[in-house]
Design a protein that fits this description.
By secondary structure, the chain is α+β, with helices and mostly antiparallel strands. The protein has helices spanning 10-14, 34-55, 61-72, 83-92, 102-114, 196-211, and strands at residues 5-7, 19-26, 118-122, 130-134, 140-142, 148-150, 155-159, 162-165, 182-189, 214-221. Strands 1-4-7-8 form a 4-stranded mixed sheet, with no helix packed on it. Strands 3-9-2-10 form a 4-stranded antiparallel sheet. It is globular.
Length: 223
């Protein structure tokens, strides 16, 4: 599947450990996969609670490093939490995770397990190269289920049409719906201590198992 993903080289001057883990695939999106939620309840939630008891939020490398990256670019990570932290906080508080569709639900399972933010995007709604860069003054969008998000100084994904995603919240433009067929899932990695290749391999298997992903291509992008 033809998709180009890049990182603005200027980012690594300020935060050298930025990488993107990418998976491109086709899928028939369904409303729900009961097996995913059984796995979430039986294994993922108990394991997450155990890790939180042992390490706390900042003991999870995906969250710790995401906070450091946000600070490096001038955004407050407690005000603009990355999505993995928001999901794991919901689990800690005893709240159920949102059920959206099979791809988004699998995306969130991957994010909880790795503590890295993950975003899934409809490739048919994107144009040109997808680039991770810093938001400019005046840039922003309506987040999914959120109000307008000011993207200035925020790490974001943009294509030829402008910003559409970030580790905090994605926009409506490229969101996954039941009509989506060609999909890009991105893991936002901000630490060399994270085994990103192994995380991608596991994520590919989970997308195949729970979201019906086919022809998964995975790769890592560095600046």
């Amino acid at each position: 599947m033809d998709v180009n993903v890049a990182i603005d080289p200027a980012l690594t001057a300020r935060y050298p450990q930025i990488r993107l883990g990418c998976l491109a695939y086709e899928a028939r999106v369904e409303k729900e996969n009961p097996a995913l939620w059984a796995e979430m309840e039986a294994r993922v939630v108990p394991e997450t609670l155990r890790l939180l008891e042992e390490r706390g939020l900042t003991g999870l490398e995906g969250i710790r490093s995401s906070r450091e990256a946000y600070k490096a670019f001038g955004r407050n990570p407690t005000r603009y939490r990355v999505s993995s932290e928001s999901l794991i906080r919901r689990i800690r508080q005893g709240h159920p995770l949102y059920r959206v569709n099979t791809v988004v639900d699998a995306n969130n399972l991957i994010s909880v397990e790795t503590a890295m933010s993950a975003g899934s995007y409809d490739l048919d709604r994107l144009q040109g190269t997808v680039t991770l860069r810093v938001g400019q003054p005046g840039q922003g969008y309506e987040g999914i289920g959120k109000d307008y998000i000011d993207m200035e100084k925020m790490l974001l994904l943009a294509d030829d049409l402008g910003p559409f995603g970030s580790p905090t919240s994605d926009s409506h433009r490229a969101m996954i719906g039941l009509d989506s067929t060609r999909i890009l899932t991105v893991l936002y990695c901000f630490s060399d201590a994270i085994g990103l290749e192994a995380a991608l391999e596991r994520a590919a298997g989970q997308l195949e198992q729970y979201a019906g992903a086919r022809g998964v291509r995975r790769w890592i992008v560095t600046a």
